[in-house]
Each structure stands twice: as structure tokens, then as C-alpha cells.
Description:
Keywords: Isomerase. It is built from 2 helices and 4 strands, in the order E-H-E-E-E-H. Strand 1 (3-9), helix 1 and strand 2 form a beta-alpha-beta unit. Helix content is 37%, strand content 27%.
Amino acid sequence: MPYVLIQVTDENVSVAQKTALIHGATELLVNILNKDPATTFVVIEEVHTDNWGVGGIPVTELRKKPN
């Protein structure tokens, strides 16, 4: 019974995108590992950008910097 946790920042991920992620992750496990989709669990966790850091800097701060 596979369990997949997908963590993304909470920056407007749509229901359609989440559905596609769930479907895609499930299909990957079915196709590669021959897992039963009925017992494959996919969880999407949205993390606030204050709680996600890259290179020692919170993503909230990174988003404020000009490109």
C-alpha cells in the first residue's frame, strides 16, 4: 500500500492541478511498480511560504526579490 506525500508551497495550486498530481503519482506507481491504484494513497500538503526555505531564506522573502 504505497503512500505518496507531495508538498508544495501554498501559492494558488488549483483543484485541477491537484487532481492531475494525484492521478499522475498514482499512474506512476501502477506503471513502474505494478501497484494497485485502489490501495495507493496520495496526499498533497500545502506549506505556507514562511515555512519553506531555500538557501537559508524563506520563500516569502525570495518572492519579494526582483527577478
